[in-house]
Amino acid sequence: MRYRWYRIRRYIFPVLTFALNLVTALFWVALRINHSGISKFLGADTNPSFLIMNLPLMVTAAACLCCALSLWGLASWERRKWPGILSFILGLVFAGAAVAVVIFGAKDYIRFILPHFWKSLAAAGCIIVFALVLYFPIRGKNFLKALLVGAVILAVVVLGYQLRPCVFTYGAVVYAVEDDYQIVFSTSDSAIAWVEIGGERYYDLYAGSMKSIDRVHKIEVPQEVLDRAEGYSIHAKQMIYRGPFGGYTGPEISERYSFRPVDPSDGLDYFALSDVHEAVDAAASAAQDKFDFIVLIGDLVSMVETEKDAQLANELAHKITAGQAPVIYARGNHEIKGEYAEDLWKYVGAKGQDYYYSVTLGEEIFAVVLDLGEDHEDDWWEYYGTAQFDLYRQEQTEFLKEILKEGEYADYRYRLALCHIPIQHVDGKFETFKEVWTKLLNEMDIDLCLSGHKHKLWPFIPGQVEANTPLNDKGHYLTDFNFPGFLVGRRSLTVEGDTQAFGYNQYTGLLVQVDLAKGIQKASYQNSNCETLTGEYPFAEGEFRRIELELKRPKK
Fold this sequence. Notes:
Layout: H1 2-10, H2 12-30, H3 35-41, H4 50-75, H5 82-106, H6 110-134, H7 140-162, E1 168-177, E2 180-187, E3 191-197, E4 200-203, E5 205-206, E6 209-210, E7 216-222, H8 223-229, E8 231-242, E9 247-258, E10 268-273, H9 280-286, E11 293-296, H10 307-310, H11 312-321, E12 326-329, E13 357-361, E14 365-370, H12 389-406, E15 414-419, E16 425-426, H13 431-443, E17 448-451, E18 459-460, E19 477-478, E20 485-487, E21 508-515, E22 520-527, E23 535-536, E24 543-544, E25 547-550
Parallel strand pairs: 1-12, 10-11, 11-12, 14-15, 15-17, 17-20
Antiparallel strand pairs: 1-2, 2-7, 3-4, 3-8, 5-6, 8-9, 10-21, 13-14, 16-19, 18-20, 21-22, 22-25, 23-24
């Protein structure tokens, strides 16, 4: 008994030394919110040298090394005493320095420092207790091994979290919104980000400050700037730590992209996709040619349940465009569902948090993007009281009226309308909105209106069916539209028949080719086998393979 107590007493000093150094090191880590204050006290305002700016970080690292030294002193106490004694002396120095920092500058911030300190200390204590329990009963070398394993686990967790690599996970996509581009890309970790065009930087900001907690980055740049430069680069720096008065970033990473501005002088080709429902590779195969721009018309994913779902539009758009051509995005009703649905606007082209807006591309193209929202009325039981889309649709009615009043659309020869749920086809829902929107779009002289939702490949040609005539015994009818349109996209290689229930290797979208000089546009359905499909008109007799339509405005 006396011998055991003697051995315990022999380890009191190295154990207390390790505890002193552990607490001191963790406190210096928690002091990181005041690192800039320490540098300022040392004269950083007038002499921002590398040593002064980084001395607090160096002291923190030294305190952590001293903690490791004290652990070595504990493990080797019976054989050598100097590591333990040296770490005790250094620990007192670092502890005294920490007390001085608090007294002479950081006492006003102690309430911010302590929560970080207590969390780190609790985590370290849990790791040590876990290691002791793992090696229970505690005898001789097992005790030292437990402390050593606990320290290693702590170091691996801390360093692994703080020093994990940061790379680009989703390449750039250039969304067109109004007369700007929104360049969207993502990083594997929280980062600050910017885009460079012709030596000018455009930052991912919130109210004047760079965003640093997100992994998806959306940066607005003027269309005319990127069109003129025909190239851009994306940049990011991992935000290892961001405090109120300072922080630490990782190395800069960057990628360079060329860019093709829309030029309709030699013809205009674009591809439209909707209702992809995760069939990314098949949809990209259907649109494998180079286009002036592409149009994504919703339901690219079945629900936005994860971040990967939110990124699917970017994954598809980047596969098709490689970040080198504009993309116009319209939201589908399935993209209203899921845990990440409320944050989808961060990942795709949008006007703030809204998915209705106008788009201009170059001097010839004007588009209006609309969003009918969910595909049932607001009181539908599945929405459990959360849907308020009638208010949202009313906003868009006023939006269309404002466009007509301002008359900007009249300066553009080619006019396009996009909405996931078709406006021309009424199936017992939103009759009033569809009829009002049809009248407003009629006044704009729309050249083409593209939709999806029904998983059909249907053309809507004005005059084929009289407006308001029942199409079936369910009371479906067409509005009085004067513009042609198409339903776009289905997960299939054919015009008719069932879409794929399982498997994602088949898709068909719409290819549109416009000749402004001749005043015509041609539209055809093209599948992932690069086949042009032949179909039948749904509301009139006859087959079609490539439909040719005249534009509404003569050559300038």
